[in-house]
Specification:
Elements (H helix, E strand, L loop, with lengths): L1 E3 L2 E3 L1 H11 L1 H26 L3 H24 L2 H23 L1 H17 L2 H17 L7 H20 L1
Antiparallel strand pairs: 1-2
Helix pairs in contact: 1-2, 2-3, 2-4, 3-4, 4-5, 4-6, 5-6, 5-7, 6-7
C-alpha cells in the first residue's frame, strides 16, 4: 500500500483513480465486468436447459473476458488487455452464431461497437471485418440473401462510424 499524505491507499483507491483518469482502462474494466457477468449468466442458463456445448462456450468466453479484466487491473497494461478482449468477443460472437444460429447474431452488433472502445481503431477495424466475413460466409445464420445483405450493411455502417469517430 502507498502512503498518500499520511493516509494509506489500497487497490480500491488505485482502481478508482485509474478509472477516473484513464478512459480505456475504465472501459475495459466496466465492459469486462458487466459482459463477463452477463455471459456467465447465459452459461448457467444454457447448462440448466441442457445445452452443454453452448454453456461451455459461454463459460469460456466469460472466463477469458474476466481474465482480460484481471490482467489490466494487475498490470495496468491497457493495450494487450484490450486486444485480448476484442479477440475474445469477436471470436465469441462468431462461435456463438455458428453454434446457436441467429440467436448469436445479436452479440456481434455489441462487438462491432465495443471493439472501437476497447482498443486501437485499426485493430477494431480488422476484428470487425473478420467477424463480418466469418459470420456472413461461414455460418448458416441467414435464411435469405436479404437477411445477409442487411447484416453486412449494418455491420459495415457500425464499423465505418466507429472507425471515423
Amino acid at each position: 500500500m502507498n502512503s498518500n499524505g499520511g493516509r494509506k491507499t489500497g487497490w480500491l483507491d488505485y482502481l478508482k483513480a485509474r478509472m477516473a483518469n484513464d478512459f480505456q482502462f475504465a472501459m475495459i474494466v466496466v465492459f469486462g465486468l458487466v459482459s463477463g457477468s452477463v455471459i456467465a449468466g447465459f452459461a448457467v442458463f444454457r447448462l440448466l436447459t441442457g445445452h452443454l456445448v453452448a454453456a461451455g462456450l459461454n463459460a469460456l468466453i466469460s472466463g477469458l473476458v474476466l481474465g482480460a479484466v484481471a490482467y489490466v487491473i494487475t498490470t495496468g497494461r491497457n493495450q494487450p488487455a484490450g486486444v485480448a478482449f476484442v479477440l475474445v468477443i469477436t471470436l465469441g460472437a462468431f462461435f456463438s452464431t455458428l453454434l446457436v444460429g441467429t440467436t448469436g447474431l445479436s452479440w456481434s452488433f455489441l462487438a462491432f461497437w465495443i471493439n472501437f472502445v476497447l482498443t486501437d481503431r485499426r485493430i477494431a477495424l480488422a476484428a470487425n471485418l473478420m467477424m463480418l466475413l466469418l459470420i456472413s460466409f461461414v455460418t448458416s445464420a441467414f435464411d435469405s440473401t436479404l437477411a445477409l445483405a442487411t447484416y453486412l450493411i449494418t455491420g459495415l455502417m457500425i464499423t465505418v462510424f466507429g472507425f471515423i469517430f
